[in-house]
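Throughout this chapter, every protein is written as a compact record of paired, labelled lines. An example of such a record is reproduced below:
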Amino acid sequence: MTRVETAEFRKFFGSIPTAVGVVTTVDRAGRPQGLTCNAFSAVSPAPPLLLVCVDRNSRTLPSLLARRAFVLHLLADDGEETARVFASGSDDKFSGLSWLPGEAVPGIPVLKKGVLAHAECTLERTVETGDHHLLIGRMKTVRVHPRRPVLYQRGSFRAWDGLAEEAVQA
């Protein structure tokens, strides 16, 4: 049996254009934390659940597990810089960013710019598997904005041009 190497795994999944998300929360001291991800999915509409995959070595993971709440932001076509900032090792990813505290999950940062949609969530369940934690969040509130999404494929960001102009205006 052949073993799939990490580089091959990444090349395989990197060939698929994916939406880009930013997950935000706060640490025990109330300081905003966040990370970029492209591994998230719908789980169930009733109750409304979503899934976010977080690397076990993420510096944001301890805050997500302790606070048990987060916001998943789906990035819009002008969100590439936001994705890069939250993917970086910076200690202050929120410097210069405009955000508001969440409504349904008080205190959790909700980004104001570069966002296609966001869902405020409480942590329903955590599953440890491989080198990741699967965080299942119960969606408490959702906001969707008439924007175009940004996609990530093979190391590059691109705006998705597949939407008809009428659909964006809806």
